[in-house]
Amino acid sequence: xxxxxxxxxxxxPQPYVEPEDTPKVKDPAIPNRMVxxxxxxxxxxxxxxxxxxxEKAHKEWLERQKIRQEKIARGEEVGPEERDPTEPxxxxxxxxxxxxxxxxxxxxxxxxxxxxxxTWEYESKIQVLKSYLPTDQTLFSERTLAKFDGSxxxxxxxxxxxGDVYDVTNGKAYQPGGxxxxxxxxxxxxxxxxGCFKTHRTHDLRGLTEAxxxxxxxxxxxxxxxxxxxxxxxxxHRPIDPASPLPEPCKPPNGKEPRRRxxxxxxxxxxxxxx
Length: 275
Hints:
Helix content: 25-40%
Radius of gyration: 41 Å
InterPro entries: Cyt_B5-like_heme/steroid-bd (IPR001199), Cyt_B5-like_heme/steroid_sf (IPR036400), MAPR/NEUFC/NENF-like (IPR050577)
Structural class: alpha+beta
Number of strands: 6
Region (Disordered): 1-32, 236-275
Family: Belongs to the cytochrome b5 family. MAPR subfamily.
Protein name: Cytochrome b5
CATH topology of the largest domain: Flavocytochrome B2, Chain A, domain 1
Oligomer: single chain
Number of domains: 3
Number of helices: 8
CATH class of the largest domain: Alpha Beta
Mean pLDDT: 80
Domain Cytochrome b5 heme-binding: 140-236
CATH architecture of the largest domain: Roll
Shape: elongated
Low-confidence stretches: 257-272
Largest sheet: 4 strands, mixed
CATH superfamily of the largest domain: Cytochrome b5-like heme/steroid binding domain
Strand order of the largest sheet: 3-6-5-4
């Protein structure tokens, strides 16, 4: 810490003298001069060595180009022209695309590591983007949906619940004569909540109780998660007149709940299939 003591006393600091045993190498910039081979000089020495190597490679390339031109002048066959090895390589569109791909992969892996999600928990943003992508979903009219009720052999069987259309061809109960064939070709969302399968074959959910609405939601999840049923689109319903009367409720004898409705309600709470 000689500089500290010099600052305290005001004396001129002693000039730095390189130790005699310090390894030395030739100065690449000044002939007949030696410089210390220490860490501070490494970048300069390495860059100078790189420049010398580049200059040598360029001169050799120029010599090969000269020989090639002479062969052409003599009418001799020559191979394709060699690119200057010292010329910086341009990054084309392919290189840019590869860089973007690597960046996306790295970002996804980093998101999985830090947040547990490849999309950095931006699921809502991804869903918005998905809405712009083409899908195999179909928009049905009520009239078109009615044609997929199983009455035509070989034609798939569709049903709808609260607007979502599902292919239930693999369900035996939806086949003609099946116990739940009345759901085929129609959006009977109300019946899923009330159990009135014959009179509530409608998508009108007005006036349902909270328990009945929960029943509808349960069956919507049932179809959405069923391994044998696939969503194929949406059904476009005609607007419901708010002033129109509500569908008549089931009227069990003696004020008791219908036996069939009790059975379906129990299945809903038990989260079982309805056939």
